[in-house]
Specification:
Blueprint lengths: L6 H5 L12 H9 L3 H6 L10 H30 L20 H5 L4
Helix pairs in contact: 2-4
InterPro entries: DUF4184
Keywords: Membrane, Transmembrane, Transmembrane helix
Protein name: DUF4184 domain-containing protein
Amino acid sequence: MPFTFAHPLYAAPLKLLKPKYMSLTGIILGSMAPDFEYFIALEPYQSIGHTTKGFFIQAIPLSILLAFVFHLLIKVPLTRNLPSLFDMDNIYGLCRDWILLTCSIGCVYT
């Protein structure tokens, strides 16, 4: 797919298969992980992103790092500033604890 942010559109429905065991954060980051090198190098040429070596050297470490950054720094402030539907405070349910499953981060590796 030429557009990196289109990958999660096709990967997110995988959460419906086993919602208890799969992390949506891991699925989304895992689907975009091979293309992270394009954003780091700011060039449209690939070197290791779509290889087995790149999976272990680049995709898994960057996915875990970005998952921690999202859940520790971004998730709670973002959910608290989202508009609530009909003035309900159900938005705080999004702030509950999460379980990091390493296999779910890379399960969508393309």
